[in-house]
Structures are given as C-alpha cells and as structure tokens.
C-alpha cells in the first residue's frame, strides 16, 4: 500500500502528465484528491501485480508513539499552503522556515477507512472499539480523518466535539494506555443517536494504527499540578511531542498538526522542527482558549451575553499573554468605556492566570473542557474554511515586526493550515508587548533546543 498525497499530484503536473496511476490498495488522501481536481489530473486505479503485492507486504511502518525524541525524523514530502486572495493589509507568504522534504511515507497497517469513504464495507479492524461497531454509512463528509493524540480529558472533549460536528468521516483517539482510547471511542460512539452524528470513532494505541490523517491534534503530555507553571513541563513534554510530530510526519505527510500540549509556544515550535513540515501546517492552540476565558469573565462582569464581547488574545500562552484592549469591545463599545480601567486590568490578569486558577481548584489535573473545545473549534474552522479571524500560535515572517519563531497572532485558517496572518491596527504599546512576548518565547525555545539537540 502506498499513500499518495498532494505531492504525488504535483509530481504528475511537473512531469507534464495528466494522470496519477495508483494501485487498488493505495490510499489517496483527500487533499490529494482536491489538488487533482483543481489541476484536472485524472486518478486512475491500476491492478496490483503479484510481484508488487509481495513487495508491499514486505514493507513495515517504522512508527511508535513512544519513540525517543532524539530520533531524527525522516524527511517527508510537504507542500506549503497555497496563497489566498485577500486584501493587501492581510499577509501570508512563504518564509525561511517553510521546510520541504522529499522521502515518501511508509505503507501502513491496518488499512485506512479512507478507502471505504463511499459506503463500501469496512473491515472490523478499522471500526469503533476494534470491531464493536455495526454498520457504516455512505459518507458525504468533507474530511476523511482527524486523529487526536492523547485520550486524557482534553483529547476526550476534543474528540467528542469533532465527532458531534458530523463533518468528518472518522475521528481516531490515540493513547498508549491499554484500551483507554478504545473505551472512550466506544463511549462517544454510543452518544451518536443522542447527538445526531454518524462519524466513525475509533481508539488505538499508536499513530500507525490510526492511519493517514488530514489533521493530527496533539494533546498528549504531562498535565500541570498545583504550583507548577506551564514551563515546568518542558523537558518531559518535549520528548513526547517531538516523537509524536516525527511519527505524524511519516504517517500523514499532508496533515496539519495542531499542538495543544503545554508549554504551548515551545511545543509548537518543537513540533515544527521535528516534523519537517512547513510552518503553515504546524499551528498551536492558545489564543482561542485565552480569548474565550477573557470574553467569559468580561461578560460576567459587564452583565452581558458572552457573544456580546469581542476580544483576541495574542502573544504567549502564559505570563506574556497580550490582550490588545484596542480591539476589545462589549456590545459594540470599547471595553475601556464599558468597564473601569481597574476592572479591565483585573479581568486581563485573571484571564492570563485562569489556567493556574483551575488547576488550584481541581487539585489534580488541569483545565480540559475549554481547551478541548478550543482545539476542536480550530480544526472545524479549517475544515469549513470559515475565514474567521482568530488567534493561533504561528510563525510570522515580518508581520508585526517579528520574523522568527512562533507567537500568538490574529490569523485566518484554511484547509491546509495557516492561510493568512491578519494585520490588525494595534497601538504602539501593544505592538511592543507583542514583540517582547515573541522575544521571551524565543529565549525559552533556545533553551529547549540546547536540551533536545
């Protein structure tokens, strides 16, 4: 079995041909199909010869979710996200970090349900809970598979929301802890009649078992306990995230990686470095969460519905979170007019420290409902191409005067990850805060690189 990504279609175009020949058991990713349709490249299925079948059977994937971080990732084929037609004030262009590799992915086992996306019978080994689910539907879903790595509370909530959206053929939970992922997947599947979705949900132990995915959400890692900062998790979680990002690149060379593991800013850049993906396809989830916290707290203080509060949290997911009050409104009024200066300052400070506040109240574990929902929200905005402006941890190339590393910025996301970094009119003071946050993140990333290199 061979996985054909968008790079396979690009190779056909570069050769001046208009046909991509694939084997009967090969996987053609949804992104490859989109690329072929746009480029008018015909995908032709060819019978697999006996000798070819023997060669395929002899190949084995080299992937494990527990691989050491020191293992160097094999370069993968990656294509930067295409440019979008947006106003001149919105910038997205390839930068020096947009890395492109060359090696094709290894074949996978078990086979991908993407082969059965039009209603054909699905083998038991790719069904919910390892074969405990019954019939499958003919699918009109927009995306084949989203894999959520880490079946802890955050991963569980994210998987539940993604399944409930009913715009994905299959959601796969991955966790090394026994049958935990399979059990949670089966439990989520049992909710399908109550919530009205037909998404397949499956739980496995490794990314290889999950199969090629359109999006890989990494939530796995050690959680905070009372008294810990997000940065205290760096060494342990770097080993986990680095290995997972490298595996994801081998198995899903066309995927978008969404990083949720803390410390978020450092882990996002670490995942980019170990995956070899272009920066446009490695994104961190922080700003959506921090923005939601500020909006909820502000709505409660102002006595309005949360949808009446607009705000976007930028910078770091931590002490250097930047809340541009010039962009924050309550019922259409500037937040600084709706509330007193002291009230606004207190709300910003509480939003910045809300994660620690939740940890202190729980005593064991950290926040999970809002982080899980925020991660799912970002994936769904990519799938649906909503075009909404939201905050994400991305790598700028000169926007806001920042040209290196990852930092939280206003963005628009598309099917292939980052579409655009949106330039909003910040004050000079807010821009300085943002650049300071980027500098502090870069310092921490440098320290991490010294440990993991």
Automatic annotation (TrEMBL):
Family note: Belongs to the LDH/MDH superfamily. LDH family.
Biased composition (Low complexity): 72-93
Protein's name in the database: Malate dehydrogenase
Residue intervals of the Lactate/malate dehydrogenase C-terminal domain: 289-443
Database matches in InterPro entries: L-lactate/malate_DH (IPR001557), Lactate/malate_DH_C (IPR022383), Lactate/malate_DH_N (IPR001236), Lactate_DH/Glyco_Ohase_4_C (IPR015955), Malate_DH_type3 (IPR011275), NAD(P)-bd_dom_sf (IPR036291)
One example of a Gene Ontology biological process annotation: tricarboxylic acid cycle
Region (Disordered): 72-97
Protein keywords: NAD, Oxidoreductase, Tricarboxylic acid cycle
Provenance organism: Gordonia asplenii
UniProt-listed SUPFAM superfamilies: LDH C-terminal domain-like, NAD(P)-binding Rossmann-fold domains
NCBIfam families: PRK06223.1
Keyword Metal-binding (UniProt): no
Residue ranges occupied by any Lactate/malate dehydrogenase N-terminal domain in the UniProt entry: 145-284
Transferase listed as a keyword: no
GO molecular function, one term: L-lactate dehydrogenase (NAD+) activity
